Amino acid sequence: MSGKRLSLALDRFRLLAAFLVVCNHTSPLDSFAPGADFWLTRVLARIAVPFFLMVSGYFLSQDGWRGTGRFLKRTLTLYAAAVLLYLPLNWYNGGFASPLQWLQKLLLDGTLYHLWYFPAVLLGVVIARNLARLPAPAAVFLAGLLYLIGVGGDSYFGFTAAVPALKTMYDGVFLAFSYTRNGLFFAPLFLLLGAAGLRWSRRASAAGFALSLLGMS
């Protein structure tokens, strides 16, 4: 696919992904079709954030991650604007208990729940860029291990909390992070998978997408 056609296709899917993010936060079908709403918001809509991360990884890796500094500056600017925009809402909600908690939210969790993506992609890009110095299989493997640790503290916490040693480990993790869907555990894998799109065939990528969607369903 030519660069122009690829950019057009990604722009179109960005619109769809943005729509799915809205669906995820509003549950549009819940009042009349709860089952369909569950699949829409808990399965299909879950591809949106990984898609945005993979697009970032794809384009950053095209020049060997040399554009990372420019990407981080641009993202930091957007994040700062979002933080300022939502400051009145933070104050209305009572703010944070201490300056340390504010710093934790600002650097790791996002100052409001839905702003978590900004610190996640900022930290994730730094980690992914350093992992990318390794051979690609090793980089993806290590990012995959981080992701598995992350889902153990999120989607599958009900299982890991039943194992005392794992619960102790995650209690330590949650001293720093409010949740594991963040730049350390969640973002690096998808950034590196986006970078891998430069090497993988469309057939391999389509097969991976289909298997992932089937597994989530």
Brief rundown of the structure:
The chain is mainly alpha-helical and 217 residues long. The protein is built from 12 helices and no strands.
Identify the notable features of this structure and list them briefly.
217 residues, mainly alpha, 72% helix
Task: Estimate percent helicity.
Answer: over 70%
The helix/strand class is mainly alpha
Mean pLDDT: 90
Find the count of extended strands (DSSP E, 2+ residues).
0
Identify the overall geometry.
globular
Terminal Cα span: 30 Å
C-alpha Rg (nearest Å): 18 Å
Question: Biggest sheet: strands, sense, closure?
Answer: none
Number of helical segments with 4 or more residues: 12
Structure description:
The chain is mainly α. It is 72% helix and 0% strand. The chain has twelve helices and no strands. Helix 3 (48-62) packs across helix 7 and helix 3 (48-62) packs across helix 11 (187-196). It is globular, with a radius of gyration of 18 Å. The mean pLDDT is 90.
